[in-house]
Amino acid sequence: MTAALSSVPAADFVATKVEYAAVLPMFIVFGMALVGVLVEAFAPRRVRYPIQLVLTLGGLVAAFLVLVLYSRDHQAKTAGGAIVIDGPALFLQGTVLVLGAVGLLAMAERLDSAAPDTFTQSGSAVPGSPQEAAAVRMGATTTEVFPLVLFAISGMMMFPAAGDLLTMFVALEVLSLPLYILTGLARRRRLLSQEASLKYFLLGAFSSAFFLFGSALIYGFAGSVRFGEIAKAVPQVGGMDSIAVPGVLLIAVGLLFKIGAVPFHSWTPDVYQGAPTPVTGFMAACTKIAAFGALLRVLYVAFEGLRWNWQPVVAVVAALTMIVGAVLSVTQTDVKRLLAYSSITHAGFVLVGVLAMDRTGVSSTMFYLVAYGFSTIAAFALIALVRSSGSEATHLSQWAGLGKSSPVLAGAFSFLMLAFAGIPLTSGFTAKFAVFGAAIAHDGTWLAVIGVLASAVTAFVYVRVIVLMYFSEPSGDTAVLTPSVLTSTAVTIGVAATLLLGIVPSPLLDLAHDSSLFLP
Amino acid sequence: MTVGGAESALFWIAGPLAVAGALALLFARKAVHAAVGMATAMIVLGIFYIAQQAEFLGVIQIFVYSGAVMMLFLFVIMLIGVDSSDSLVETIRGQRWAGLLLAAGLAAITIAGIGKAAFGTPRGLAEANKDGNVSGAARLIFGDYVWAFEATSALLITAALGAMLLAHRERLTPKATQADWSRERIRSGENVAGLPAPGVYARHNAVDTPALLPDGSPAELSISRVLRARGQVGTTGALTQVTQEIEHEVGDESDEQATTRKDDDA
After folding, report:
1. Does the domain formed by B1-82 have CATH 1.20.120.1200?
2. Which residues cross the membrane (chain A) (predicted)?
3. pTM (two decimals)
4. Which of A17, A129, A166 has the highest number of chain B CBs within 10 A, making it the mutation to test binding with B?
5. Tell me, what's the ipTM?
6. Which regions of chain A are under pLDDT 70?
């Protein structure tokens, strides 16, 4: 026993150095999530909501300020190579923080009442049961969603900054697990919400297994999970392509699932429809940002040397994603499902940018993600306001004539629809211009052509919604609720960003270009 | 790379066991059988790890997977009931065959790929186990991969929070005490003395046997409603029949009972 102990050289263990200045924003978000859990445990029920709202928003703002003012000057590969804080990582982390805060405003909406509006009062009660009614009567709250959102955001910040496959896998789970739970907590149509949550969880677990399988193959190929080591191993190791290529493709499957690319998109419409509407906006915006960040890092840093093997596959996926998303969005009759297919189409557009394989690819992708994120969070926040007999009116026919009954909402929604369609003077146009420009400059003209055609198809869908709102007579009892300052702020920020990025896109384009270099 | 005689013997004995366990997990109709199959596969895997000098991993495999995780599975099976089995009806036609075909295709591609690959020389265990197996694992977990290790704490907290949210029913009102129940009974005037106890007889007593009312009919209230919902309420027919027979023999039979008995005999 003593011999075994003395043979252990404990003294020469060197603790891994962490550049705390670089990872401080992640620590703040994670720390605030932990504080939020403690608040849930000890604060009385009545004061939980205000405390959580202030803590969560404060944490996100503080993390963003630290990121912009401090961490930006401390870019580093840290924690033994597990975390890489470089330009793209910082840009995407900042975007996730801002959009997370905007999404949180919409999620915290209570419509000037004491009762929560978005989330169920009692996630454990059977829908429609006496327990649920009692929970509503007693004023129960589900303020646990605030720490859950923070956990998801900390995972989303870690995902594009991961420096090895292991950290990336853990980050993938950290960001997914809270989203599975949040999806199942809708206040209305709870069975639909719970079904969506279960579907998301099962398919997500399945795709995680693909990612893990791919990582194992790559570890067998390169002898390391670090992206830098893998990139070095790619040109050196001969005769092992038959392990490396399936490995890359399986990892890509895991990431493309999160992005919602065809043929891994089948969860998207159901989950987007079932989840609480502001959560859908948050998922659509922030999950995409994190997942595209991770995809960029995997494809650009680790597997750049194998691009002739994976590039055609990803190109086909991008084309399919655009075509299937656009065609299926035509047939949708539910606003949330329509936007879900629209988000699939947009994922295809962003993939076109990813395939450019140089700085313009990174910068155009990142710009697109920012533009799409702001528009989509605002759009879903608006959908949450349209109600019919106590429930959300998501069927398209219920939106008829909204232009007359509530011109502000209809105007804002129409503007966002035009941005999704890519009409000039909106952020959607600039973003599409950037990704298609990057694609055309790098042999991706056929993809750009498909992208433009798909845009035309989706433009028809969006314009149809606008026509429905303005040129048909109102029917039924559809009413638009007056939002509190929270949703109003979220929508205003989203619409303003969509407009600003359409008129003066150059500051953000320049920032994206400046922060488009990966640390090897 | 050579494998010793003992190790290959172990492999050829334990390997089929692991495969059999895994197949049992897939094909068993009953949840308990599937769980036992899974436990077998897990334990045999642990033995393999130990045989390959990864003692730490092997012990953890047996402790954590076979011990903790399997116990959780069994608890879940207990909660949902041993008898419940999945419906094996396909909701999408031809899904099973299509799935099998795709899985076989994926397996073929992967096996062909890995079989074709030219692996380099293995680095050997000596380097990895230089400081002892546990120290080597500790060095990796707390050294190179400390970030991933620490980040999993977020997963655990999220899982606990999610379980609380989705499964824990928060108590909204103070729990009623015995005094509260008593007060409530007297106020309502129903069952003032409490609900009747289940049947206690000279030769037989059990919670699933209802008590008898003065007229000989079973007292529904004396049985827990859970047992009634499950259809596990015992019958009192045999008991009352014995009583009636004894009463008949001693000639202490009421007229009413006598007529019903004659009807039964007829």
Report:
1. yes
2. 20-39, 51-70, 90-108, 145-162, 168-186, 198-222, 242-261, 282-303, 309-331, 338-357, 369-386, 407-426, 446-471, 483-504
3. 0.87
4. A166
5. 0.89
6. 1-11, 112, 237-240
